[in-house]
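**Backbone geometry record:**
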Amino acid sequence: VMALGGFPITAVAAPAHVQLSLMRERTGVHPGETITVALRLKMSKGWHTYWVYPGDAGEATTVQWKLPDGAQVSDLHWPLPEVIKTGPFVNYGYSGEAVFLAEITLPTTFVGPNIEIGADVTWLACKEVCIPEEGQVKLTLPVLGEGVPANSSIDSVAITEARLQMAQQASGNARFEAGKSIVTLVLDTFESDQSGAEIQFFPFAGDVIRNSTPQKAVIENGGLKLTMRRGDKALPEMFGG
């Protein structure tokens, strides 16, 4: 573990198939401030882990934060997944590397020279087989006095890049048009600077769409229509009809 001024830059745990690390955007934090931290999962070649909704099979990564009294943590921000096809199953997850972000807010009344941030993380690592794994990481940050700047850490570039991997708010109106067996996502305005890029809808729950059925995208008149086969548990109110 590298260290700067006695404080770890990145705390690392190394299970069998996935390496876990915890990073921070700045070198310190003031009472009452919010700091961004990041959990990085680095998968061994050929292995993958899963998104918040894993698809036809799999299990989502979970995080249990360990924070001092009064500190608050945001929901975990998940990078966009990739489609992972295994036989007849279509799953959503990550290969190579995935970086998850969270914001931690220190109470204004915090007293102490340091804050310790820890996380117990569990995930399912899959290749030909699936193996449940876990890791524990923590780091210590100095709590800065008034007027002392919080400088960017060595991890800040990786965290900035991770933000670009998150879902971005689309402009214009969006709606679903539902039929008995299909559902179509309609975006009145669709801008893409990646010619030929794959367009994919990722559901947050199971059986809303048929994950294994190809999605058909049509771009016309400056908008997008993405047609999918409706899942067994999809309700009309989910899609406004």
